[in-house]
């Protein structure tokens, strides 16, 4: 394979017509929501059933299974890894560090602030995404895009209203985590649609092993790795091993779908989707885990969903306007010597046959 060749996109279904119906940005976003909610419920089930409260270890399992899953897909021929140079490999290393650092800062900040405050600040990620895209990528957004984000942000605030307690360090770390989350989303999009144009599975194959090693190091630094060893000696069972394996498989598909949805939409759309997913998680908690919410929380959930729909409509409308071909206001003159279309009535008048 030549160095400039790009991986062949993964064919989800045979044939062009079915693939055209499945391989759309809205389909990938729908799968992103579904898998995110499934993984959230599954994580809570593991925590409540097996008392496996080791977030760094769980993240390590996710990255390990994602790397093995991407490697399996490459061996089966679903995509061909691109040949990258030293500079591109350094970009992958920095991206994996950004991925791990984002998780680390988020976990650390949760110890310094309340959950409600953490969710509200993370809801500002679309704002940071716009700022990064405008400042570093020279992107421009319409006024309707900005207006469509207002009910979304207000809805997340209302849905997560509660005890907004925080320390000065916690405030700084939470804002830093939101900035890192926005940066990670923007970089993910640029890696896949920019000069590298990596296949989502190719990106997952290169990033996951590096993130796994970094996650193990963070787990060791926080002392969680020693606790996991003790837990394995006393409470590990085959049921838990199978549960963690299934959890890792779901995480692999979620990462693949997330990268693909990011590639087919935009970084801003993914951050908006993350906010809607956050509120949908509250809905799942209410229906599945019998969590009680107040009237203001319920109103915020409705407003967030409406805000997400409003943004989706604005984004769809602007994409259609950009894709619509421009037609001139006046017909362009025909070049000299080009055949001109005759008037049908004149052709009938001139269609005279001479009979001898």
TrEMBL record:
UniProt keyword Membrane present = yes
Q: Which domain of life is it from?
A: Eukaryota
Q: How does it sit in the membrane?
A: Multi-pass membrane protein
Which residue stretches does the UniProt record annotate as biased composition, category Basic and acidic residues?
342-356
- In what ranges is there compositional bias, type Pro residues? 328-338
SUPFAM superfamilies in the record, alphabetically? Multidrug resistance efflux transporter EmrE (SSF103481)
Q: Give the region (Disordered) as residue ranges.
A: 327-356
Please state what the protein is called.
UAA transporter
**Native source organism of the sequence:** Mortierella alpina
The coding gene here is DRP1_1
